[in-house]
């Protein structure tokens, strides 16, 4: 797991608890995705980001125009202004937002490299459930492997 055991017990800050922060929308049913946003929180997002599972009913406040399938395809970061960043672009944005990720910013901001990062992100996102397969409770991940 990516997050420490102590941080895994603490709930992530929701947008209603911290208005004015960027909102990270992720697949809350994916163990890998949940561990990843907990890692972001640990790396400095605690004071800069709030988190919302795409399965939460309040998702319509941030991405009401997107389908469930579109939200399942990639992580989304919504700025307080309403500007949205998805997938590799979202991670690229977070490398500017979180000081602990600044080390990745030069690599992710090479001119004309975003299509390559987006392709890599899509390929990884497509198989993300395989990374948490052994951690799934009951048949919760079965749908992704049939």
Automatic annotation (TrEMBL):
Superkingdom in the source lineage: Bacteria
UniProt key word Cell wall biogenesis/degradation: no
Transmembrane segments: 101-121
One MF annotation (Gene Ontology) recorded for this entry: protein-disulfide reductase activity
Keyword terms, alphabetized: Membrane, Transmembrane, Transmembrane helix
Pfam families in UniProt: DCC1-like (PF04134)
Keyword Glycosyltransferase listed: no
PANTHER family reported in the protein's UniProt record: OS04G0668800 PROTEIN (PTHR34290:SF2), SI:CH73-390P7.2 (PTHR34290)
Protein name as it appears in the record: DUF393 domain-containing protein
Organism: Blastopirellula marina DSM 3645
